[in-house]
Every structure is written in structure tokens, then in C-alpha cells.
Design brief:
By secondary structure, the chain is mainly alpha-helical. The protein folds into 2 domains: 328 residues, Amino acid/polyamine transporter I (Up-down Bundle); 147 residues, 3-Layer(aba) Sandwich (Rossmann fold). 64% of the residues lie in helices and 5% in strands. It has 25 helices and 5 strands. The protein has a 5-stranded parallel beta sheet with strand order 3-2-1-4-5, sandwiched between helices. α2 runs parallel beside α11 and α5 packs antiparallel against α17.
């Protein structure tokens, strides 16, 4: 392999131009499986979660109450679909609960919503990957020592496929998801036909299997027991929010496409969840330690034929692919947060395949750390799962309730009533889920949530201070023509007009009269704005612009420097002047200078190129300190 660039091209394929973005967006057909993988995989096991909450207390009587628990969950799903449809109509740039809460509650509530969504997305990846690994180990027990390695390989493969672009990943992940949906529909239809023609008999259990049930022998459903079963069954609702978070990923008209996908997703969840709930009651199925409820139902309906194994195979795949919903929703949410200055701005940049690659790598890193920390054990990860999504449900529902009450749009009365009821139900669900899982580990969320919120608040304050420190507003800049007698060739790189850039330019302008100002354009709009600012400042040095359609600034810089270096006379050097931001925060290295670092690293390879880094102190105290140092130095001279 010649270089890292060659390896990157081999793994990710050819880079895509900016004007190819529309081709990378999701249609209804391919958007549905991408957004449905998490929700559909959760639906497949929601009935089992309900039974696992009921059976220890009610024993075999538990199957009689599955419908009682399932109906309000379906009602809540309809409310959520309605709510998120309205969010899609009113907030076209994505972000879901974050943008709703930001507009209707303010920054603190929006940061809580964003934090909950981030945690939920990361947990979705960790739980789905660990579940898929557990399914594989159940078939091949000798793989147990390699549990973590297998999980990391799986999350790495999903990450790699997503880095190759939305269009390519949607087709790779879409086919298995459709296969699972079709197999589940076949299961439900076959089961219903056999039920109505009288050939579907309840499952028979032997005494050893029934001994696994530790029943408290309650005769009736209690409120607490119902709430526990309800909160467990609400796992069927995870993933519904993903569509509203990822509106920009859909083909135009993106809002209309997103709404269609949302309605189709809601319909599929109702059919699969409602159908499996009915069949579970008809078959009187109970969860066993060595057999899932779904596998028992498939065996009872299909027998041990090809459809049974096909459903088991697609179930294993959907568990793995459920992680992909996070790769579609979270990078867009992170990009929105970055544009609002709550996350490092690198998250707002698209990679070579037009995906938000930094957000994708964020998911990979954090989910991998979770898998390592918890030994890829699903049962240890589950307590952190679904709490975040319930909180985001509640915030978005209540946010829409406030919006309707304020706007008084046509139909606001019934809309606010629906969202208000949804907020109440999801709020109760949030409390129940959190409290029932508290002793099992959900208490950690009381630590993780404030840390995430603190980081986003710190990031916002940092950028506020930084932008104020480099702003040219009120800065009376005067261009002075170079008086230097030196004519050695020099290139100064300019990205935007600010005090840091002007200081770098002034330094380069003082040391030589042979100066080139170079700008690598990744956005026509920003470049035109830069040209206007440059013209308004009446700077006598022309601005050289190189446009790169691939959002890669290193390659055009490398080509330009190679050309300039080849034109040098013997013994002559080319000087490149860059800006280095200097702050005093411990996290400053995350926010600034990555681009400068990679450019400077590339320039080291050139024998006849010298690099100068011009520091800029954006912190007020540091600026005052530097001014005092400069004054003392000038006085001594």
C-alpha cells in the first residue's frame, strides 16, 4: 500500500463531489429500512419484554394480560407518529426533540434532550451489537472467549459501511431489514390463518420448563405491575424518533419523504407488534431461558421447516443492523449541535463520501468503549437503554404542546390535547423505566447526563469567547503596503476574515514583498463572502482561490505547493505562514488547530519549504498579557 490515502480509497471508494449530495439522499424505499432497523428489531422482542415483567408475578396467567398492556402502547405509538409528523412539518432541518425544546423551552431543556438522544443512540449500537454477538455465541459456544473481539469487529464493519456513504449503506442494510419484515408478516398471516381455521394450538410445556417460572401467584394485574410491563413493552417505540432527526438525509421534498417513511414505519410497528401480541396470547407462550418467545412462536406456527430457520437467520441479522439507525440519526444531530456551537465544529463537516464522518467515528469510539467496559454483555447494558429516548419523547411531546398553545394555529386545540396526553404518558414511562432499572445501573445516567450537558455548555461558552476574540466588528483595520526589501516567495493561507487571519497576513506582509494569499474553497457561498470582505478591506495583495469539490483541502494545498516548489531557483525556499490559535482551556486542542497540524505535517515532507506558525491569543487576559510583553519589549529596544 503506497499511502494512507490509497488505503482510505480502497476502504471507502472514490470521493464524491458536492453536487452529488442529492444522489446520496434516501428515497422512501431505501429510507424505510434504514430508519426501521432499530424500531423493528425492538418490536420483535417487545412482547417478550412484557411477558418477562408479568410472568414472575402472574405465572401462566400472564399471557391473558399481554393485550391489555399492548393496546396502550399502540395508542402511544399513534400519538408519537402524529407528534413526530408535526415536528417534521414544522422543523425541516432535523434535530427532533432538540430543536423542538430549543424553540419552546430554551437552551437547558434542549441540551437535556440532545444529551438523552446522544446516549440513546450510542446505547442502541452497544445493545444491538452485544445482542447479535450473544445470538452467535448461543449457536457457537466456543466463541465465548472472543465476545468482545467479535462485537468490535461487527461495530467496525457497520462503521466502515456507513463511511462509504448513505446511498451505498442503505442498499447493504436495506435488504436484510426487508427480509425480516417480510418473514414477520408471513409469521403473523400464517398464524392468523391457522387460528381462525382452528389448527393453531397453545404451546405445551413440560414440568422442567415450567419450573423456570418463579410465580408469586397473584391473581390480578396491579397498577405497579402494569406500569412495569408497559415500560418494558415500550421498547417497541425506540427508533420512532429517528426519522424526525434525519430529515436532511431524505430526497426532496425531504419533509414529504420523511413523513411517508414515518407513516410506513408506524404501520409496520403496529402490524408486527399487534400481530405478535395476539399470537402470543393465542399460543399461551412464556419466555424461557434457552428459547426466545419469537423462536417458540415461529416453531409453533411454521414447524421446523425452512421458514423457521429463515426467520431465525433474519432475526440475527436485524439485531446486528439495528445499530444502523444510530448511524443515520446521530451524525445529523451532532452536525446541528455543531452549527449551534454546542459541539466541536468538526462534526458539521462532511467527509469524502458526503456523510458526516466525524459523527460516525464518534459513534464507533463511544460504542466500542461501552462494549469493552461491559464485556459486550447485553444484560449489563440494558439498564441504560430506553431511558434517554423516553425523556426525549416527553420533552418533544410537551414542546409541541407548548407550541400549539402559543401559535393558536388551526386545529391547535385537538393537537395540543393529543401532545399533552402523550407527554403525560411518556413522562410516566420515563419515571417507571428509570426507577425499575435504577439498582441495575441506570443510576449512572445521573452522572453521564450532567457530564454531557456540561461539555456542550462549555463548548458553547468557548466558541462565544473565541468568536468575540477574533471578530473584526469594531476593528478598524488599515492595510499597509509591504516595505520589506526581501523578495523571497511566501504563501499565507486564509480561511476566513478575522483578527487572527489579519494578524497572520500582516506578519507575512512585513517579512517579504513577494506574497501570495491563498484560499482553498470548500463552499462557494463562504468564498464569495470572503472575496467581498477582502475587497472591502482594500488589501493590495490579490486573493488566490482554489476550489475543491471534494471538501479536502490537503490535496489542493499539496498540489499547489509542489508546483511552487518546482519553480524555485537553486538555493531558494518557499515560506508558508499559518495561524495557530492559542487559548488557555484544557479542551482547546479539540476545538482548534487540527487543520493547521495536518497542513504543517504535510509541509514537513518538502525539502525547500519552511513553515511559520503565527500565534493568536483569543483570550482577553492573554491578549492583555501579550500587549504588556510587547510594550516592554518595544521600550527595551
Amino acid at each position: 500500500m503506497k499511502s494512507f490515502k490509497d488505503l482510505k480509497k480502497l476502504l471507502l471508494g472514490d470521493a464524491l463531489k458536492d453536487d452529488q449530495l442529492q444522489n446520496e439522499k434516501l428515497s422512501r424505499f431505501w429510507g424505510l429500512p434504514i430508519m426501521a432497523s432499530d424500531a423493528v428489531s425492538s418490536v420483535a422482542y417487545a412482547v417478550e419484554e412484557i411477558l418477562m415483567a408479568l410472568v414472575p408475578a402472574l405465572g401462566l396467567l400472564a399471557v391473558n394480560y399481554v393485550g391489555l398492556v399492548s393496546l396502550p402502547i399502540i395508542l402511544l405509538l399513534l400519538i408519537l407518529v402524529f407528534s413526530y409528523s408535526q415536528i417534521i412539518n414544522n422543523y425541516p432541518n432535523g434535530g427532533g426533540a432538540y430543536v423542538v425544546s430549543k424553540e419552546n423551552f430554551g437552551n437547558k431543556a434542549s441540551l437535556l434532550a440532545a444529551t438523552c438522544l446522544i446516549i440513546d443512540y450510542i446505547m442502541t449500537v452497544a445493545v444491538s451489537i452485544s445482542s447479535s454477538t450473544a445470538a452467535l455465541i448461543a449457536v457457537y459456544p466456543h466463541f465465548e472467549p472472543y465476545r468482545i473481539i467479535i462485537s468490535l469487529i461487527c461495530v467496525g464493519l457497520i462503521t466502515l459501511i456507513n463511511l462509504r456513504g448513505i446511498g451505498e449503506s442503505s442498499k447493504i442494510f436495506g435488504v436484510p431489514t426487508y427480509a425480516f419484515i417480510i418473514s414477520m408478516i408471513c409469521l403473523i398471516i400464517t398464524g392468523l390463518i391457522r387460528f381462525f381455521n382452528g389448527t393453531l394450538s397453545p404451546i405445551s410445556y413440560d414440568p422442567s420448563q415450567l419450573s423456570q417460572i418463579s410465580s408469586e401467584n397473584l391473581q390480578n394485574m396491579t397498577l405497579i405491575l402494569f406500569l412495569c410491563a408497559f415500560s418494558s413493552g415500550c421498547s417497541a417505540l425506540t427508533g420512532v424518533e429517528a426519522v424526525s432527526n434525519a430529515i436532511p438525509s431524505f430526497k426532496e421534498p425531504s419533509q414529504k419523504t420523511a413523513n411517508h417513511v414515518l407513516f410506513m414505519l408506524g404501520g409496520i410497528i403496529i402490524v408486527i407488534f399487534g400481530g405478535t401480541s395476539f399470537l402470543a396470547t393465542a399460543l399461551k407462550v412464556i419466555p424461557l431461558s434457552d428459547k426466545t418467545v419469537l423462536s417458540q412462536m415461529a416453531n409453533a406456527i411454521f414447524g421446523s421447516g425452512i421458514m423457521f430457520y429463515f426467520l431465525q437467520f433474519t432475526t440475527s441479522l436485524i439485531l446486528l443492523l439495528a445499530a444502523n439507525t444510530s448511524y443515520s440519526g446521530l451524525p445529523i444531530l451532532l452536525s446541528i449541535l455543531a452549527k449551534d456551537n454546542y459541539m466541536p465544529r468538526q462534526f458539521a463537516q462532511r467527509g469524502t463520501k458526503l456523510s458526516f464522518s466525524n459523527g460516525i467515528m464518534f459513534i464507533f469510539i463511544f460504542s466500542s468503549l461501552l462494549l469493552i467496559a461491559f464485556n459486550a454483555d447485553t444484560h449489563r447494558l440494558i439498564p441504560f437503554y430506553s431511558v434517554g429516548v423516553f425523556v426525549s419523547f416527553t420533552i418533544s411531546q410537551f414542546g409541541m404542546f407548548i407550541k400549539w398553545r402559543k401559535s393558536k394555529q388551526p386545529g391547535w386545540q385537538y393537537k395540543s390535547l393529543i401532545n399533552g396526553f402523550g407527554a403525560l404518558v411518556t413522562f410516566i414511562g420515563s419515571i417507571v423505566v428509570f426507577t425499575t432499572k435504577f439498582v441495575h445501573g441506570s443510576w449512572v445516567l445521573l452522572i453521564a447526563t450532567p457530564i454531557f450537558m456540561w461539555f456542550m455548555s462549555y463548548t458553547y461558552k468557548h466558541y462565544f469567547k473565541f468568536l468575540r476574540g477574533i471578530s473584526v466588528l469594531g476593528y478598524n483595520y488599515k492595510y499597509k503596503e509591504s516595505q520589506s526589501s526581501d523578495v523571497f516567495p511566501c504563501v499565507v493561507l486564509i480561511n476566513k476574515i478575522n483578527r487572527a487571519a489579519l494578524k497572520t497576513f500582516d506578519y507575512a506582509n512585513k517579512i517579504t514583498s513577494n506574497l501570495t494569499v491563498l484560499h482553498i474553497s470548500v463552499s462557494n457561498e463562504e468564498t464569495e463572502h470572503l472575496k467581498k470582505q477582502w475587497s472591502d478591506l482594500q488589501i493590495g495583495v490579490p486573493l488566490t482561490v482554489i476550489y475543491t469539490p471534494y471538501r479536502d483541502i490537503l490535496t489542493p494545498i499539496k498540489s499547489y505547493i509542489n508546483k511552487r516548489e518546482s519553480e524555485l531557483d537553486n538555493g531558494e525556499n518557499l515560506t508558508v505562514v499559518l495561524t495557530r490559535i492559542i487559548g488557555n482551556g484544557i479542551l482547546d486542542a479539540i476545538y482548534h488547530n487540527q487543520t493547521t497540524f495536518f497542513i504543517e505535517k504535510e509541509l514537513r515532507k518538502h525539502e525547500n519549504v519552511a513553515t511559520i506558525l503565527v500565534p493568536y491569543f483569543y483570550n482577553k487576559k492573554q491578549i492583555e498579557k501579550q500587549n504588556r510583553v510587547n510594550a516592554i519589549t518595544a521600550k527595551e529596544e
